[in-house]
Each structure stands twice: as C-alpha cells, then as structure tokens.
Amino acid sequence: MNWLHTGQQKIQSTLEEQLPKIQQLFTEKVSAVVLAKIQDDESMKWAAQKIYEVLPLPVRLVVKETAFIEFCLTHRDKLLPAPIAPLPQLTPEEITASFKQGVEHYNQQSFTQAIDYFTQAAEQGYAAAQNNLGMMYAQGLGIEKNLELAEQWLQKAAVQGHLKAQKSLEILKKNIQVSE
To answer: What is the pTM of this model?
Structure first.
C-alpha cells in the first residue's frame, strides 16, 4: 500500500513542477473565448484531455490522462487565465462579416488584407478564421511564414472541433517532426 501512496506523490509533484507549463498550454492552445466558457467539469475535462495530448512525453509517461484531468479539475483556478480586459466584442454578424471579407480578399489574392480580416474574426474565437489564419501562417501567405503561430491558430480551431484544422494540425506536426 505504501508504494501506491509514493506513486501518487510522484504524480502530484511532477504535475506541481509542470504547473507553469500547463498554465502556458491552456493559454496558448485554447482560445480565450473557449476558456471563458469553461464553467463546468465536463468542459474542463474536455479541455484537459486536449492539453494532455500536447504535454511533453516525459510527463505523459509519469502521469496518466485520468490523473492529469483530476489535477486540472482540482487546480482549475490556477490553470484558467485571470480575466483580462476583453477584446472589443463584435456581434456574431460582425464576426461572420469579417470572416467573409477575409475569404473575399483571399480569393482575390489580397493576402495581407485577408490576414487582417481573419485575425479580427479569429481573435473573437471564430474557428474557421483561426483555421484559415493558421494555414496562411503555415504557407507564408500575406505574412511571414511562422510554423509556431500556424500551429497555435490551428490548435485553437481544432480544440473547437474544426475538422480541417484538426487534419491540418496533424499534417503540420508530422512535417515539423520530419524537418527537425
């Protein structure tokens, strides 16, 4: 029975040591809109499952997913970002209009303008805009190529269930691993 208690202590201490990294992952990988909506345990469990997938391998070898989810539920107040000054809230119609203007500019190959409109909608949590923005960063269209930002935007869309973003993120991660 003592070895079980020791194992649980090791898991707890590993997670405590990794708390700043876990906080950073919650902030970077999940959009502010989604984080603001995490009110109940089911939403928190869902977010924790997504974050567990991107934890460093050494942590995942020590900590099982169920223990990580329990840790996240217990430390919710430390993991979720403190309320910050909100972005100017756009109406759903304004967000959709911004996205559509981004698509129009993209189709006209006015990539710089497309980036501006997609960014406006993406920052409001619009998953399709986050996906498009991530792809534009990945390809360097209208903006300097930046695979880290591409991954961040695609992750935010993927966490919201955007299927194209999930597939693109998977491909991007494989390509990054191949080139390293």
So the answer is: 0.54
